[in-house]
Amino acid sequence: MKVIPLHDKPLIESALRRNTQLHLYELGDLDDFFWDRTTWVADESLREIALIYNGANPPVLLALTDEPMRMRTLLHAARPLLPQNFYAHFSDDLVDVFADDYKIESHGLHLKMSLTAPHKVDAVNAGDAFNLTSADLAEIKTLYEVSYPGNWFDERMLETGMFFGVRREKKLVSIAGVHVYSPRYRVAALGNITTHPNFRGQGLATITTAKLCQELSRHVDHIGLNVLADNKSAIACYKKLGFEEVARYGEWMLSRLPKSGATKETTPTGRLYLLIFNTPASLTGTR
User: Fold this and answer.
1) Strands 38-42 and 4-6, how do they pair?
2) Are both 4-113+247-256 and 114-246 of the same fold?
3) Count of CB atoms within 10 A of residue 142's CB?
4) CB atoms < 10 A from the CB of 74, how many?
5) Which of 67, 153, 58 has its CA nearest to residue 105?
6) Phi and psi at residue 159, in whole multiples of 5°?
7) How many CB atoms within 10 Å of residue 3?
8) Is residue 182 classed as helix, strand or coil in its secondary structure?
9) Which ranges in 88-190 belong to alpha helices (H)?
10) Among 82, 94, 127, 243, which is disulfide-ready with 238 (CB 3.0 to 4.6 Å)?
């Protein structure tokens, strides 16, 4: 099949709006704030669209769909266009498309959750939370080093004004922010949410997340997040705030194998690497 490169924002938006909750990240990436870091490809029907987000290292491929067979065909055709190494979000078993050419590491099953009961967020007293800016960057990085090592944090996102924190003992101990935010497209995806290990169990993540959602609700219509499916404490927190599961997908790291003289390592049960990375200290998935 022919792979169609896309540059028409209204056309892309129209396709993604068939399932807004599934495609919050992609819709947000249409915003001028992210647009120049994106590459979009579609199948000939223009029903299936995949996004390569180049603003991360490694780049991130988003291939989420309600029609896996159509997306599978698109990914097969698009393989020559993809980077040597990339992170990916795949619906169902779409990662199998790359089994012959890539070393594949699983980063776990994830849930997509959407805020469907905003009255629960509004009921939270979030008076302790305050807005974080670039002036707080050093303190933010220190918190992530302790409580969320390996976190995907783009400090440019502080420019959105949508990061909030709580201090205890004059130190930043809890934080909630966004991976994607677009008033133009009325969507936001939460991210970078964590609490210092010494201050967990006090409901601080609930406060920071509630404050963030309260502010976001003034500017967007759809608020969502990604979270590891086995992160029970985080999921319980989000459900308490009015979020519910809307989809499941897998996150993967893919590294292209050498073309000649390569030998593929295998697990006892198959040819895919299966390395599960569980990060219970974090409350959201990677971008």
Assistant:
1) antiparallel
2) yes
3) 13
4) 24
5) 58
6) -65, -20
7) 17
8) strand
9) 118-122, 137-147
10) 243
Instruction: Assess whether pLDDT exceeds 50 at residue 47.
Output: yes
List 180's β-bridge partners, or say none.
Answer: 189
Segment 213-242, tens digit of pLDDT: 999 999 999 999 999 999 999 999 999 999
The Cα–Cα gap between 280 and 22 comes to 23
Q: What are phi and psi of 54, to 5 degrees?
A: -95, 5
pLDDT at 284: 55
pLDDT confidence tier of residue 263, bands split at 50, 70 and 90: very low
Domain chopping of the chain, boundaries: 4-113+247-256, 114-246
pLDDT score, position 274: 31
**95 to each of 88, 114, 125, 198, 248, how far by Cα in Å?**
9, 24, 42, 38, 14
Q: How far is it, in rounded angstroms, from Cα 155 to Cα 159? A: 8
Task: List the 222-228 sheet strands across, edge first.
Answer: 4-6, 38-42, 49-53, 60-63, 85-90, 243-256, 102-115, 222-228, 187-195, 171-182, 164-168, 130-131
Lowest mean pLDDT among 36-50, 171-185, 190-204, 266-280: 266-280
Q: What pTM, to 2 d.p., does this model score? A: 0.89
pLDDT reported for residue 140: 98
CATH architecture group of domain 114-246: 3-Layer(aba) Sandwich (3.40)
The mean of the pLDDT values for the chain is 91
Topology of domain 4-113+247-256, per CATH? Aminopeptidase (3.40.630)
Neighbours of 174 (CB within 10 A): 27
